Amino acid sequence: MDIMANVLLAAGCSPAMAHALDEVEAFVGISSALLVNMGTLSADWVAAKKLAARKAVELGKPWVLDLVGCGATPVRTASCLDLLACAPTVVRGNASEVIALAAAACRGASGNSGGVRGVDSTAASSDALEAAKLLASQHRCIVAVSGAVDYITDGTEVVAVRNGDVLLTLITAAGCSLTALIAAFLAAAPPGPGQQLLATAHALAVFGLAAEEGLKLVPRPGPGSLRVALLDMLHLMEKDAVLAGARIERL
Ligand SMILES: Nc1ncnc2c1ncn2[C@@H]1O[C@H](COP(=O)(O)OP(=O)(O)OP(=O)(O)O)[C@@H](O)[C@H]1O
Ligand SMILES: Cc1ncsc1CCO
Ligand SMILES: [Mg+2]
């Protein structure tokens, strides 16, 4: 929650981390977008996630699902399936999580089918592209798979983003923070066909580019200094740097 909230603040947003059952709906009411993160699955938190997601749909607000550890345990996979049924705008996971969710959605399976290593991926994002397309078309959402190359699809179109650095995988909740940034970009996306897909791709590009630019500031790069430099660059990067450095390609 620390790094997610700080990433959002650095990017100019106003985050609130809320999970109380009797509060989440009111918070969705005053928010521009909702992020549901599956990192912590106490029963009342899961219930609050579902309430919040349903409220966002009722109010027509975008909401994003982060599949943390989908496939690692039966409870995690089942909870992710429950949230998928609440019509997310965007689903974001690493390759193993997306593969596990697609397998579970197809077969009702809840075992470790995506090669999940706890909350970390053992698969390449390209290996999850077909699973992502299937999920996106069957559930009418956008699916973003993070990795060396990030893929974003609505089931028909596929966009690839080639920003980022492998050192990000050594910062816990880097992916969670990226998903938070997707929610922020959805909140700011103009209406119209394809805009949410583009907003999602741009969030991935800006996040990855901030890491790349941050690494240039660090004399001896490691996860700790990258974590700090990433926050700094999300705050400092100007539009020109983003336009020059974003590597977004329609496939
Ligand atoms: N091999 C890589 N090269 C460059 N960037 C990468 C690589 N792997 C991941 N990334 C980037 O790291 C960020 C986090 O993605 P990752 O797939 O590691 O998420 P995650 O597994 O959900 O992480 P977490 O669970 O810690 O939140 C993304 O911006 C992604 O583009
Ligand atoms: C390590 C960890 N455990 C639950 S959430 C989280 C952050 C990375 O997904
Ligand atoms: Mg994750």
Automatic annotation (TrEMBL):
What's the short name of a Pfam family annotated to this entry?
Answer: HK
**Requisite cofactors:** Mg(2+)
CDD domains under this entry? THZ_kinase (cd01170)
Q: Which UniProt keywords apply?
A: ATP-binding, Kinase, Magnesium, Membrane, Metal-binding, Nucleotide-binding, Thiamine biosynthesis, Transferase, Transmembrane, Transmembrane helix
* The EC number(s) this enzyme carries: 2.7.1.50
Query: Has keyword Repressor?
Result: no
Q: Which domain of life is it from?
A: Eukaryota
Protein name, per record: hydroxyethylthiazole kinase
Q: Which organism is it from?
A: Gonium pectorale (Green alga)
